[in-house]
Amino acid sequence: MIKSVFILLLALFFTGGVRAQKSFSVTIKLDSGINPQKVRYRYYNGSGTVLLPDTFGNRQIILLKDQYYSPLASFNVSYNDGPKTYYSNDFFVDNKPAIISLYFKPNDDDQLLYSTLINATPVYDTVANKTWSELQTFMADQSVARENQAFDDFLNQNKGFARNDSLKRIFNGFYKRRLNRTMLFLKRYADDYFSFWYFIQQVAQVGSVLKDDKPYLKQQLAYIKAVFPAKFTASFEGERLIKAYEDAVK
Question: In whole angstroms, what is the distance from residue 179 CA to residue 196 CA?
């Protein structure tokens, strides 16, 4: 199969005179067993998540370049192997040229696998990311085993809970307790950028499930200001996050 290189340069415009000081360059190489037309790319640059347009065709080598406003940029690559079967992986990169070689093999973790990583770190790898490994252990601790099972049972038995106010209240209770436990863990590693990134990606409720729960948004806003260091909260990324919360709780 003929391989070609596609270079995507995204010039993002931001108001307020913001200037990025760092740029990333990521080369993604797809194994011949991957259908390029079923691969989707997105990245988070500290300002927002950029969904890349489906303009890559059959190209199996792709070069992505852009600026980023956070300590690290993060990439998500997902692959659709069937109507409802998705495999994906996430990577941190910095301003060093990165190379990520991917291949596909069905697996229980639904991960899009990699054979080569240069200047890229797999976010959800328990060896490469010790904080993630410890978070997994903390969230599955025996002390919350009954709570976790009850939440799983609720979700399995109430597929349409979102259409029932009583069931939604029960869900919200479970969900908040899980979020709060995650926040308890992240507080231990507040100086680690992964913790701040993970809060933004997986825990923050601005524009998410609990977006209308102003008391809970206020609780999370207070947590952000009290827990994370100024190197995160006073950065462009952190200021945007705090402003989003402040606007939401007005």
Answer: 14
Q: Over the stretch 45-71, which tens digit does the pLDDT of each residue have? A: 999 999 998 778 899 999 999 999 999
Tokens standing for residue 130: 């010790």
Q: Is 108 helix (H, G, I), strand (E, B) or coil?
A: coil
Residues 234 and 213: their CA atoms lie apart, in Å, by: 25
Report d(CA 151, CA 234) in Å as an integer: 36
d(CA 7, CA 145) in angstroms, rounded, equals 47
The two beta strands, 120-122 and 49-51, are unpaired
Sequence ranges of the domains in the chain: 5-122, 130-248
Q: Judge contact between 168 and 175, C-beta under 8 A.
A: no
Q: Give pLDDT, residue 20.
A: 55
What CATH fold (topology level) applies to the domain 5-122? Immunoglobulin-like (2.60.40)
pTM of the predicted model as reported, rounded to 2 decimal places: 0.90
